Amino acid sequence: MKTASVSQLLGVCVLLLSALTVSAVSLTVSPNLQQFFTGASVSLTCEGQLGSDGWTVKRDTGSGNESCGAGGRGFGRFNGSSCLFDEFKPVSGVYWCEGEAGEKSEEVNITVSGNEVIHLIIRLTAHCYTTSTSLCVFSSGKEVILEIPALPVRTGSDVTLRCKKKTGGTAAAYFYCNGRPVRPKSEHIITIDVQQSDEGLYWCANDEFGLSPQSYLRVRGQITDITSCLLS
């Protein structure tokens, strides 16, 4: 019985370790937000287990895949280990990092509208952890945007939501999740003690400035303590 228990425990450890090493590269967003007004500076970071060599930033806008710095069929330009967007024309697509052997990071959906210059930098660095996110950039047609994390959040953590005005500062607003009010009254800022049930589609609404775009908050469970498993 004891041998069977040890075998089961080792099996659990292997599964947990495997779950942590599925992706060889991951994406992060800085600042960690989903919505931006045009003119904002945003960076997407590709982080590989073995460094930045061999990784290419790619996108699909619905008419085929394109690679950063690839001339006529590409976009942006490389500067060291960064993919720079000097002129980000209004284009939406799916972006990811891809290795020489075809391994891919999780995808990032980017929505851009308006014709002002947006500086978007994708940097390649040498660390790895799993993320998943959507990124949206909105034109001056929207007077407010929702400040909400782009990366998934862990249960038990605090998440702060704000309704940000295009003219600067925050607006007193009602906040909604999946069509239901998060709070019964208008507030400038709210903080949520995140539970799995808080995952969903969020937006804010202000009587003067109208509605923000909608963004999805992803919630993940707490990270399992592998150390205690291995030392048991």
TrEMBL record:
Chain ranges of the Immunoglobulin domain: 31-113, 148-220
GO cellular component: a single term: external side of plasma membrane
GO biological process, one term: cell surface receptor signaling pathway
Segment forming the signal sequence: 1-24
Molecular-function GO term, any one: transmembrane signaling receptor activity
Keyword Signal belongs to the record: yes
Keywords: Disulfide bond, Signal
Domain of life the protein comes from: Eukaryota
Entry-linked PANTHER family: FC RECEPTOR-LIKE PROTEIN 4 (PTHR11481:SF64), IMMUNOGLOBULIN FC RECEPTOR (PTHR11481)
Descriptive protein name: Immunoglobulin domain-containing protein
Organism: Oreochromis niloticus (Nile tilapia)
